[in-house]
Design goal:
Elements: H1 3-56, E1 58-60, E2 69-71, H2 75-82, H3 84-114, H4 120-129, H5 131-134, H6 137-147, H7 154-161, H8 174-202, H9 207-214, H10 219-230, H11 232-247, H12 251-256, H13 268-277, H14 282-311
Antiparallel strand pairs: 1-2
Helix pairs in contact: 1-14, 2-14, 3-8, 3-11, 8-11, 11-14, 13-14
Amino acid sequence: MTVIQEQQVVSRRGGWGDGLRRMWRGEGAYLAMLLPLLIFVAAIAIYPLLFSFRISLFKYRLTDPNQMQTFVGLDNYWRAFQDPIVLTSLRVTLIYVAGTVLVEMVLGLALALLLASEGRMIRGTRALLLLPMALPPLVVGLVWKSLYNADFGVIPYYLKQLGVDVGRGPLAELGWAMPAVILIDVWQWTPLLMIIFLAGLKSLPIEPYEAAFADGATRWQRFIHITLPLLKPTLLVALLLRTMQSFKVFDVIYATTGGGPGSATTVLNFHIYTVGMTFFDMGYAAALANVLLVIIAILSALYIVILERQQL
């Protein structure tokens, strides 16, 4: 090998080494730092999902002394779509989601507009309104269950003073149970939307408002034609978050009505709990949980597509 050939070999090795070092300093370093997080996500999130899908393909009951798992394919999913209780609980879930999300969006935006100024009293009011979010949903459910109690609850007492017949209490009457649990959710989670909308309002540019004011636009016209169009991305993000949370409701239902009276408040998530932890039919419960996951994923994807189109 000549001297020139040796120099070429050395330069190639150096070039490869420099390339590897640059790769390690760039993307490789990021991957190395993200590797523990990726492993954690795989262990905590991905593995349970795969396990749930696997169990949903089997007939598996925890009460079986032999713990037999009989492969049934997609029979659990077919059973879910033919089960009238599932269809009823899905309808109740949609009513609950629509009631909570719509009311919270309107109230959250109203509170954000009302508390958008930076006065000391306004800031204190904001902090006070955030307190319901700090409480666990199970505790909130138990507290409101006491407030709704027909014998010593504050709410039935004042309703009776107004001449409203609440019978055995709001949580025990078919016509009152769903509005009662919706009110609990509205009380706890409206402040979250208020904060999201406040952040959106603070990020809006001031120039369109100055131009509209100079043109003589009223406050209502500025809200309709400037605030709402500019706030659309924030509204969609809030709508996505609250829709996902409302579909997964369980704590409040468990603490207040237990799905009753009858099936008036039996949301799909509570029915999944009943199938899995009362009847111990784990395969069927896993299939129902996957159905709920797919519903939430489809709605989330739809919201994200709409959000991306709004930003174009």
